[in-house]
């Protein structure tokens, strides 16, 4: 190919494909990519009939689900659509969806939306496999937020008692992911930006998450740099599709698909978010806006030297000067996260969500995991600070 032939190609890295040859068969990205990527992934998986899983707002208030259905119908691969998946993936919706999935004889799920449809789809496939004892069926995820649930093998859902529970298996990770920024234009601003803070939470907590290899940590640094840059730009210019595409790629980098030898939880901010979110109906993204900055500040006091070094290293990638000490740099990172939340108009309090103060010790204990953990009083104090 001559240099003249390559001139028509954009060097912005906003289009392309990446494949992980085990569970994940392909990530396709780029504005308008759903039209070609969805048929390709169906063919790769040998799928014949798709079951679309989404939420009511996306189904009723936008044409996004209809676009996906139309592509499936054009390839004679449409089965049915289920749009009763609520926030935090309640088990009742998952049960109803599983029954419908089996009734239509679908062999693949196409999830459309944020983390709740993606996680609900994993749970549906988990329970289907438990019933049949056969191989896991697969999911193609088409995210419209930045929550990054599509890159993990775990599924969080809310049980009948109102608590968040998790099922996990390598086979539950979506087999295909389509990042089409055009499909995010209808995402409400608060949801889009707050799930962007969820991606910031992923990137930061991966810096001290056990078993994460160093190259992935450097991807997280790159994710942080892009998220800090492009989230404010997206707020200022919501129709900028190129900025939205860059944010989708940054979300991908924040939680790069990993095949870990054993399960490794992200960190305290996520643990607190899981306990607060389902029980008190706080959206995932908003829990990150609440908990991440104070958790990072706590790390300046409690983290190991190696974890402090990784956290402090974020300032270099954010093009911020060092304070001269690891602890000072971590506190600066915490302050920068707090400022980003404020600049995006996402400041929240536990008062707004009517979280009773008397519940704080239990929330802290569930997040930390042990009554006698010396960290427990500090976590209770952290939660107390979130009422201001």
From TrEMBL:
Q: Which Gene3D superfamilies match?
A: 3.40.50.1970, Dehydroquinate synthase-like - alpha domain
> Which CDD domains does the annotation name?
MAR-like
Q: Could you tell me the keywords of this UniProt record?
A: Oxidoreductase
Q: Which Pfam families match?
A: ADH_Fe_C, Fe-ADH
Annotated ranges, domain Alcohol dehydrogenase iron-type/glycerol dehydrogenase GldA: 27-180
GO (cellular component) term, any one? mitochondrion
Domain of life, per UniProt, equals: Eukaryota
Q: Which InterPro entries match?
A: ADH_Fe/GldA, ADH_Fe_C, ADH_Fe_CS, Alcohol_dehydrogenase_Fe
Keyword Metal-binding tagged:
no
- Where is each Fe-containing alcohol dehydrogenase-like C-terminal domain found? 194-371
Molecular function via GO = alcohol dehydrogenase (NAD+) activity; metal ion binding
Q: Sorted alphabetically, which PANTHER family does this protein's record hold?
A: ALCOHOL DEHYDROGENASE, ALCOHOL DEHYDROGENASE IRON-TYPE_GLYCEROL DEHYDROGENASE GLDA DOMAIN-CONTAINING PROTEIN
The protein depicted here goes by the name Alcohol dehydrogenase iron-type/glycerol dehydrogenase GldA domain-containing protein
What is the native source organism of this protein?
Trametes cubensis
């Amino acid at each position: 190919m001559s240099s003249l032939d390559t001139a028509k190609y954009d060097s912005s890295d906003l289009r392309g494909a990446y494949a992980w040859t085990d569970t994940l068969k392909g990530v396709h990205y780029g504005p308008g990519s759903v039209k070609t990527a969805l048929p390709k992934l169906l063919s790769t998986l040998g799928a014949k009939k798709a079951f679309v899983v989404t939420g009511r707002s996306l189904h009723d208030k936008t044409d996004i689900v209809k676009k996906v259905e139309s592509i499936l119908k054009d390839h004679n691969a449409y089965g049915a659509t289920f749009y009763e998946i609520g926030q935090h993936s309640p088990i009742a919706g998952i049960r109803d969806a599983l029954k419908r999935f089996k009734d239509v004889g679908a062999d693949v799920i196409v999830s459309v939306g944020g983390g709740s449809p993606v996680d609900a789809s994993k749970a549906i496939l988990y329970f289907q496999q438990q019933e049949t004892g056969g191989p896991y069926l697969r999911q193609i995820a088409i995210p419209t937020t930045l929550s990054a649930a599509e890159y993990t093998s775990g599924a969080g859902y809310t049980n009948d008692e109102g608590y968040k529970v998790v099922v996990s298996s390598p086979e539950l990770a979506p087999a295909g992911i389509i990042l089409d920024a055009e499909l995010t234009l209808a995402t409400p601003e608060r949801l889009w930006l707050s799930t962007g803070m969820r991606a910031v939470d992923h990137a930061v907590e991966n810096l001290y998450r056990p078993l994460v290899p160093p190259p992935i940590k450097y991807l997280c640094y790159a994710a942080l740099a892009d998220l800090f840059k492009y989230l404010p730009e997206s707020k200022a210019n919501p129709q900028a599709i190129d900025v939205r595409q860059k944010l989708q790629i940054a979300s991908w980098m924040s939680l790069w698909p990993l095949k870990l030898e054993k399960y490794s939880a992200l960190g305290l901010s996520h643990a607190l978010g899981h306990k607060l979110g389902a029980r008190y109906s706080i959206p995932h993204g908003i829990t990150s806006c609440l908990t991440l900055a104070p958790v990072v500040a706590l790390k300046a006091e409690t983290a190991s030297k190696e974890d402090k070094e990784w956290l402090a290293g974020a300032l270099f990638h954010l093009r911020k000067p060092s304070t001269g000490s690891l602890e000072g740099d971590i506190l600066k990172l915490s302050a920068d996260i707090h400022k980003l939340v404020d600049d995006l108009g996402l400041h929240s309090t536990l008062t707004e969500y009517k979280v009773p103060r008397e519940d704080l010790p239990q929330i802290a204990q569930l997040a930390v995991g042990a009554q006698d953990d010396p960290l427990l009083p500090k976590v209770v104090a952290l939660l107390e600070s979130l009422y201001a």
